[in-house]
Amino acid sequence: xxxxxxPENIKQYTKSNLNVLCDELRSVIYxxxxxxxxxxxxxxxxxxxxxxxxxxxxxxxxxxxxxVGHQCYPYKLLTGRxxxxxxxxxxxxxxxxxxxxESVYDTYDTGHAGTSVSAAIGLAKARDLKGEKHAVIAYIGxxxxxxxxxxxxxxxxxxxxxKILIVLNDNGMSISPTVGGMSDILSDIKNGEKAENIRLxxxxxxxxxxxxxxxxxxxxxxxxxxxxEMLSQSSVLLHIVxxxxxxxxxxxxxxxxxxxxxxxxxxxxKEYSEVLGExxxxxxxxxxxxxxxxxxxxxxxxxxDFFAKYPERAFDxxxxxxxxxxxxxxxAAGGLKPYYAIYSTFLQRAFDEIIxxxxxxDMPVTFCIDRAxxxxxxxxxxxxxxxxSYLSLIPNLTIAVPKDTEELKxxxxxxxxxxxxxxxxxxxxxxxLFPNINExxxxxxxxxxxxSDKIKCAKATVLAVGERSLIIAGKVLKSxxxxxxxxxxxxxxxxxxxxxxxxxxxQSETLITIEDNVFLGGFGSxxxxxxxRMQKKCTLKNFAYRDEFIPQGKVADLQSEYGVSCVELExxxxxxx
Length: 577
Prior knowledge:
The protein is of the alpha/beta class. The chain has three domains: 2-255, Thiamin diphosphate (ThDP)-binding fold, Pyr/PP domains (Rossmann fold, 3-Layer(aba) Sandwich); 272-425, 3-Layer(aba) Sandwich (Rossmann fold), CATH 3.40.50; 447-576, Rossmann fold. It is built from 22 helices and 19 strands. Helix 6 links the parallel strand 3 and strand 4. Helix 1 (15-36) packs across helix 3 and helix 3 crosses helix 9. It is globular and about 80 Å long.
């Protein structure tokens, strides 16, 4: 059925045919995600509501914004992308998130939580000012509905005098189970309690409709028809309840584990998050002031055991990254030692709070930044390639990058007694690949991982930041040593402050920097500036990512394509050595 499906023909489908379509969508999504990886449970739960939306509304004339986009696979399959869906999340293939350059049906690019209501209001105002009449829909999960940006948008809904439909897909989950006051409000509404909670929602200028079974196709069609009629009078919030992972028993029973899944057969590597969780538990056993904060991702960030062992010192604040940063700053002001674990790409959302609340007050908050560098198949919105740049400009903030998981342990031990803001950034997976130098972690001090001559400097020295960069340097070193060539390799484990003494004393004719970050504002550009300031005479070559947004693909392929690879480094070194 999907092979020949045309959105404009769906209104001729019988209810029986629509249910068959739902079954086929669920099957294709499951099979494709098992092959390509991706977001499984959220998409399985959104099938019936998506089919009903197509049955009632007229896309792409009507517009829809998917919050985050974790639930957009059924929509993609219904909008002419079935034949290419097997390329999901691969280089040049179908994105796992809405993409305007992929289809006219994709109205607005998303990837981070909480943006859909603001975007829908903006699209609705554009419609109003142009004299158009189509519907505008925000499809948002209850986890995203916790995000403060949603309430900024709702606060302006009356002022902007426009009409949108908000579909609140309530499955009790984001990545982790949904927490907080709004979650309690929605639970009360579902249980038929506290009618004043509905009035609270309607005070924003919305007519509330609910609670509807989001996995009952016929009920969804009726609910959307009703909401569509109501849109002529005011904005509408349609509250639906769905089962995350619907249709596949294991996914229904384990929605957190099947939120995002790797392709079948993917190798299992030790993750930095596991080391983070284990080490923080050890540190907390000896320091009652250590606390942990997560923004709705405690499982993905390796914090499950900490939450179980120290529940009074573990805080999941939901998808509220700014709030989490201020919370940490204030905890530190109160004498605690907070650790804020978060993905690099999501920490961007708290940039002002990092500056204003944490660093301007010189608070001893440690940011544990996971998924730093290229993250791969999730594409532009999830590549953590900006953190060295946006953090390095902030006074009082120290930035550390471990060479492997063992050095992460040492950095965390160091952090426990460090009395200033600290950011430790690392990729997802890691190995213990480098020699244990047994040097103590000292702020701003680097170490040689390989020195070709114990007394003199080599003709070239590579300053490598983090595991991935050191792996590239190590592979090139082995290759060139077979040709009788060699160079020194340095673990530049502190990006801020730089090891100024090292830069002053190193005598290599050529210094090379390599990092898993964009060049602008990153490690290489900082080294450039320092060498210029000290008027040091040497050749400097930087390997970092170009000034572009990096799409989806395999990590190694993207590193190579965007300027950080063994081939480029080896070619350059072969030329100068």
